[in-house]
Amino acid sequence: MLSQKKFYVAIVLSALLGGTLVLLVSHWFLGLNFIPTTKIAYRYKDTSLAIPQEMNFVYSAEMAIPAVVHIRTSFTRRQASRYHENDAIDEMFRQFHGKGWSPRSSSGSGVIISEDGYIVTNNHVIENNDLIEVTLHDKRSYEARVVGIDPSTDLALLKINEDALPFLPFANSDKVRVGEWVLAVGNPFELNSTVTAGIISAKARNINLIQDKDNLQVESFLQTDASVNPGNSGGALVNLRGELIGINTAIASETGVFQGYSFAIPSNLVKKVTDDLRQYGQVQRALMGVEISDVNAELAKSKKLPNVDGVYVNNVTTNSGAWEAGIMKGDVILEIENIKVNSKSELQGIIASKRPGDKVSVLFRRNMEEKKVVVTLKNPKGNLEITRKTSSEHIQIMGAEIVNVSETEKEALHIKSGAKVLRISKGKLADAGVKQGFIITHISQSGKRIVVNSAAHVLAIVQQTDKTGDGLYFEGIYENGDKAYYPIGW
Question: pTM for this one?
């Protein structure tokens, strides 16, 4: 029994001795001041953690939030062709408003890109809507007008009448790298000024989202895992410097909400499109004149290509820039402007940032031999012309924006011509009682009743009245069939 007690005492003493040694050794090691591999420090005054600059999202969020706006749109136009008899919501509105009415509203996001009120968003956010309301981060609200749209890239440019606004500068999206941290800023589910973080997952993605009637759609998306949901469309994707690198456009989802992948239009393409819309009223599309396809293992084997690099030229349009530069069917384009291209979307993304008349260097391979040529890009009509949107399409007069009446509206209202008040703000028309949607069919001037042929015709009559000082009388019809007559004071 005594020996057994000695045994237990020995065990306890050993444990105490071992613990003491561990404490001594630990104290000695801690005294060596080991430095962690991650640069994390503590501010001892408030005990808050200081995050390394390359991981700090605060600066970029503070830059982006004031420049991202909330866009609300509404649609109340009479369009019988869009009515669906089996749609319960449409049926409810039909009973309330009359057959053919299908009111709706939606919301999205936009990004201020200049201090004088230019805003970029997705075309699908504002498409076919009568009223576009923009709410800033500070809750000021404005009615926006559409400067121009480009369905082939799903972009639209808006304008509000305000100055000294916060805006985001454009980054060079060609320099964005996979793995780079990014922030998505927008208004998902009506939750204003929401910021989410992620990384660039891939570049030059084509997800077959955009359909263009002329087959000129451009898809070269930045893919990210930053959380994006309905309402984020048109919002900002920014880098950690607070610069705009993309416009959030779509998500890959089976449920309608974020499931890990979102897609943004790269900023270089956004800048080119918005510059075109501001300067010319429409996008200047440039083409090389080649039909191309991605090179995969199967194609490389069938065409006896040495590798899967580049994009394969299936055909070349006669008299196009590529044809004139000597590019032929069967060639493999390797680089554009010294940038490697390994997919159709990469090539399209580069060319889409150019205008007709621009020259680009092209490196291609033919029969194992590499050649470099300069291609002069042309427009879809096959020439170098820069086209402008005619002034007759959107006219500003007396505080209102007017456009030509569509053929559908002429047929529905049984009129031959006219000019429609698309948007209206303070001015002589508003003072006279004219409302949005009014279609001007006749103008009486000096006792003469004139049939209105177009928006440009209205402008010409108004300009003539400016010189004579005569009064005007606007006669017309609203979209619901109500006729109206307004004297316009001068």
Answer: 0.66
